[in-house]
Amino acid sequence: MAGFPNVRLANRPLHFFYLCDGSGSMAAQGKMQALNQAIRQSLPGMARVARDNPEARVLVRALSFADRARWHIAEPTPVDQLEWRDLQAGGCTAMGEALILVAEQLRSPPMEDRALPPVLVLISDGQPTDDFEAGLACLMQLPWARKAVRLAIAMGHDADLEVLQQFIGPEPGTAARGRTARRPLQASNATSLAQYIQWASTAVVGAASMPTSRMAGAELEGNIPLPDLPPTELDPMDDVGPMVW
Amino acid sequence: MTWILPQGDWLSFEGLSCPVRVIRGLGEGTQGQVFEVELAGDRFALKWYLPRCLQQDPSLERRLLESIRATAPNQAFLWPIALLRPTSGSQDLFRSSRGGFGYLMNLRPPNFLGVVEHVAGRVDITLRNALRACFFLAEAFHALHSKGLCYKDISLGNLFLDAGTGHILICDNDNVDVDGRDLGSVLGTPGFMAPEILMRRDRPGANSDLFSLAVLLFLLLTRHHPLKGQLELEIRCLDEPARRRLYGEDPVFIFDPADSRNRPDPREHLAALVTWPIYPGFVQSLFQQTFCDGMRNPCRRTLTGQWMEALSAALDHRQLCPVCGMENFGARETCWHCGQSLPLGAWLVAANGRIRPTPDNEIHPHHLDGFQTPQLDHPLARVVAHPGDPALLGLLNLSDVSWQVVLKGGGELRVEPGQTCNLTALTRLETPLGTVRQEFSHSRS
Q: Which positions in chain B touch A236 (Cβ < 8 Å)?
């Protein structure tokens, strides 16, 4: 049969990590269930984005941290083969250890020589109970960690925003008006959590794997331009600027 | 996903005599959302903009209205048909504080898939249809540029392909602008943007479209990016600064005859190495023109008309390998796939071109009339196999007039529209547009 040669566009791996808080406080108000649901629901959209970006081979891993940090999905798994088993809540918040676990995976090897920027999504509702600073220092000495798109989602009002900001990087200047993913994303309920998870697993994966349209005047912040955040519930159309001043 | 328009509801728009029913959301992009809608019994697509997009692009409405007035350059564009603004009565149904607007266009038929499906190797397509898709893309840009317009932001994401015919559809026509006027703020997509645009030395227009067009043509023909060779392998983390180097600061064509720094790697860039030798030199040289001289000198880039001529000529050279059956395009003396020698074979020779008598190859008006721009949509004749004997080839009369055919030995016969004449017996055929002879050449070129 005459046909196009059996070749395809070259691709690079894109490693996506969920770092999920599994501490005891996540058991309250159904937060753990909401997170499990949000991630599970986001998978079809993530698979679609992976399919639309043939230059990327999207591989997902997840870990949870409570008394200890441990891998929940240890193998880099293609998103269309991913099955999300529920995380359980209970224990302290070993966030520093979680960063050390991720750091071990961002060393070369096991990291490939060539890849797209990894995406790290840290989700937490509280304060680290171990040595967060040491974990972060261990992570950030790695070039792949510094190149990674690092996002943080604060669940509820008790999350330690300062710690999450340290994970993301320096806080953007006051010039960055409105909401930006260069600050922790604050999910006050299950709906906004689901939106942020969906956004991170689709729009951000897309931006990290394949460039999108550029507008004049948009200045590059970080090594990957982050897509606009999803609209919030209160202000569905988002980012209109200050309401009163 | 939160949809801006209420699904299932009827909405009234200014200037429309009947309401529009929102059937379902189809998708979401960075600028807005697209819905399937019903208007007066017909189905359309409605793209509705996010307020922040309107804020960022104040001239959008003006460009759209001008495009609507100008009408589609050709049938390859899913062009805006009408601009829709909600009436004051409908306003409350919109999940948006301010009115905003959208535009109506035709729905994309289901046989058109994103071109990513082709470059990712997930659709079956013949080389013929890949070349036809390239021709139709060049033809679409030819029509657009001939109207004095430019596209500015073509990339894999807004191109759709019918792999069964090679027809294409270009979507997201809302950045279209009068060339050189520079209304609007889009620059393009890295990897498709011309280097001078990526480096902010110039603003997008028809010349930068020619660069993006060549990138897309290259992707369609090779399933590989023209600037990804050795220099890409040296990049560990492919992020924005790296793309800027690769596509903007130091862009080198992987097959640049004068600069071998960026040659494809046999393991990582196999697609380019397998496919490039399939195409004849007159197609390869047009890529070199755009990606070598034209890399820094935008006015040296291959023009749409040159692409159309070369791509249609490549289709005319199409020959099937007698051993493995693969399509060859006159690039080499041996089959690209199995290495067997290809027969010198016959040609159908017309005043302005010659065509291999290979099933599905076609004679078009431009073959007979040198003043016509190449077109593939109205063939005069097609080479077909006999339904009962695939080895027996004939020429099917697709025109609306009868042909006079001169046979070997001097006999003559008439071939009416819809009839096929046996090629084994044919020496010459006369049509009102001109003569086609069958010749057995002793050289390949």
A: 2, 95-96
HEC string of B173-208? HHHCEECCCCCCCEEECCCCCCHHHHCCCCCCCHHH
- Residue A203 CA to residue A226 CA, distance in Å, equals 8
Cross-chain residue pair A240–B51, CB shorter than 8 Å: yes
Query: Quick check: bond before A211 cis, omega within 30?
Result: no
Minimal CA–CA distance to B305: which of B150, B139, B132, B136?
B139
Q: Are B192 and B212 in contact (CB under 8 A)?
A: yes
Q: A213, B188: Cβ pair inside 8 Å? A: yes
For B140, the enclosing helix (H) or strand (E) is: helix B127-146
Contact A113 B236 (CB under 8 A): yes
With CA atoms as reference, report the closest residue to B214 among B160, B121, B285: B285
In the structure, what pLDDT confidence band is assigned to residue B443 with cuts at 50, 70 and 90?
low
Place of tokens 């601009």: B83
| Residue B51, preceding peptide bond in cis (omega within 30° of 0) | no
The verdict on B190 touching A (C-beta cutoff 8 Å) is yes
- Secondary structure of residue A76 in the 3-state scheme: strand
Q: Which residues, including other chains, have CB under 8 Å from residue A231's CB and lie 6 or more apart?
A: A237, A238, B2
Which residues are CB-contacts of B42 (< 8 A; sequence separation ≥ 6)? none
The residues, any chain, with a CB within 8 Å of residue B342's CB and separated by 6 or more, are B319, B321, B322, B328, B332, B333, B334, B335
Q: Is the dihedral of CA B85, B87, B88, B90 positive or negative?
A: negative
C-alpha to C-alpha distance for A111 and A25, rounded to whole angstroms: 33
For residue A243, name the pLDDT band (cuts at 50, 70, 90).
very low
Sequence-ordered alpha helix ranges (H) in B199-293 = 206-222, 230-233, 240-244, 270-275, 281-288
Residue B53's pLDDT is 83
Closest CA to B398 of B371, B422, B419: B419
Q: Are B11 and B3 in contact (CB under 8 A)?
A: no
Tokens 């890949």, residue located? B130
Q: Are A14 and A115 in contact (CB under 8 A)?
A: yes
**Number of separate helices (H) and strands (E) present in chain B:** 13, 24
| Alpha helices in B6-59, H assignment, sequence order | 51-56
Asked if residue A176 has pLDDT above 70, the reply is: no
Q: Do B193 and A113 touch (CB under 8 A)?
A: no
Any CB–CB contact under 8 A between B114 and chain A?
yes
Query: What pLDDT digit, counting tens, does each position of A81-136 carry?
Result: 999 999 999 999 999 999 999 999 999 999 999 999 999 999 999 999 999 999 99
CA A149 to chain centre: 7
Q: How far is CA A195 from CA B1, B88, B195, in A?
A: 8, 31, 36
B234 touches chain A (CB under 8 A): no
Q: By C-alpha distance, which of A236, A229, A232 is closest to A189?
A: A232
Which residues of B fall within a CB distance of 8 Å from A213? Answer: 30, 153, 155, 186-189
